[in-house]
Amino acid sequence: MAEKAMLTLEGRQRDESGEETVTRLRTQADYSIRNGCHYILYEEKLPDSEAVVKNLIKLKGSVLEMTKRGPVSSRMVFEAGQSHRTDYVTPYGILPLEVCTQELEVCAGEPDGRPAGPGASGREPDGRPAGPGASGREPHGRPAGPESNFQENGLEIRLSYRLASGEQFLSHCAITISLALLRGTS
Q: What is the 3-state secondary structure (H, E, C) of the chain?
């Protein structure tokens, strides 16, 4: 069963001339865990339009997928140290992209954004190796360890990647995905 959550996405893109563009979206989302995968579903309106794009963020282990469906569609795969190809489909045409992920970090957090536990690296915030408690489970009853990546108060995902189309560099990008559960609204 999905839980209601507040999702904040902050993106930064820096092109080859060094010009940086920052985008920020804050919206309600549905969050669930099924078969070891974290799912975040949300909708966004396109700028200067009433058109709605349905978005899915799927996290399984150390692989993140971001899928858009609607007037704009794509399926971007982020995996540290790996490149993945995709087509970014818009009403104006199709842009073939290569997504080269430099870093993907997942960590559970407190509502104010402070780290509260191990990330995908299996390390505590201070860098020490993390290990599950005596029971091997988190306090909320879900399995402990990197595949869990969740605490009662939220989840934060940070990634940095490079975008190219063909042999043409487009931009260096960074996204921070912050999720906070909204208690009593599921």
A: CCEEEEEEEEEEEECCCCCEEEEEEEEEEEEEEECCEEEEEEEEECCCCCCEEEEEEEEECCEEEEEEECCCEEEEEEECCCEEEEEEEECCEEEEEEEEEEEEEEEEECCCCCEEEEECCCECCCCCECCCCCCCECCCCCECCCCCCCECCEEEEEEEEEEEECCEEEEEEEEEEEEEECCCCC
